[in-house]
Amino acid sequence: MPYVVYEAIYAPQANAEEPQFTPSELRMRFGTRAVHELALVDHLKQQPLVACHAAVAPVTCVPGDLTADVVPFDSEHAPPPAVASIVGCAAIDAASEQERLARTRIESAPISERFTFPEGSAALSPDATNSARDVAKHMTEDPGLECLGLVGQTTPGEPVALAEARARAVKQLLISLGVDSRRLLTIAANARVASSGTQAQPAIDPESRRVSLRVMLQTSTKSAP
Q: Would you say 84 and 200 are in contact if contact means Cβ atoms under 8 Å apart?
């Protein structure tokens, strides 16, 4: 039976009367069946501020372990799980969605569009909008394409951060054309480094400065029996 565990971190607020002593943060774990994952998250979000206590032993003035008054999660009285409540790329890792994905995941067709960039830049080319419109149209017409990976790439000598910046530039363009941001996942790919030695260095292909598209999650719009 799938099970999830969340860790809530509570940071004590400084006390004006005792500014020299502020306890370290308190970490508390909460677990439940995967079907109640969202209910557990909502339960914790409703308690962003809680009372904390650190009891002092009679023989010392040093506070003891810190405790927090967090209301326990009651899975027996939790609201029923929503159907397909987690959408987009987040569904890939959500324990509560694995049963649905196992029933509906299908083989995806590749997407040929790609976005190229000048050397050392994450600026989109003038024709990027036309390519992005085609991608946005594809995703609108295919709701089963739940997660699209935007793989930013660089050539040797360019920083890895530039690959992420290129992927984010394409993501923002697609969002501006109406694509749900939850269906987009940016990925930075390292540049291929040539081997050392007397071997001639291969010519750098400008097309390697690009963002290519990879379908990360494709499901059928009809649930399997």
A: no
Q: For the chain, which residues make up each domain, given as ranges?
A: 3-82, 106-218
pTM, two decimals, is 0.60
CA 87, CA 65: separation in Å to the nearest integer? 40
Amino acid letter, 104: T
Phi-psi region of 195 (alpha: psi -120 to 50; beta: other; left: phi over 0): beta
Q: What is the pLDDT of residues 21-60, one digit of tens each?
A: 777 888 999 999 887 888 898 899 999 898 887 776 666 6
**Alpha carbon separation from 40 to 50, 75, 85, 119, 132 (Å, rounded):** 16, 8, 14, 47, 37
- The fold of 106-218 is 60s Ribosomal Protein L30; Chain: A; (3.30.1330)
Asked if 40 contacts 30 with a C-beta cutoff of 8 angstroms, the reply is: yes
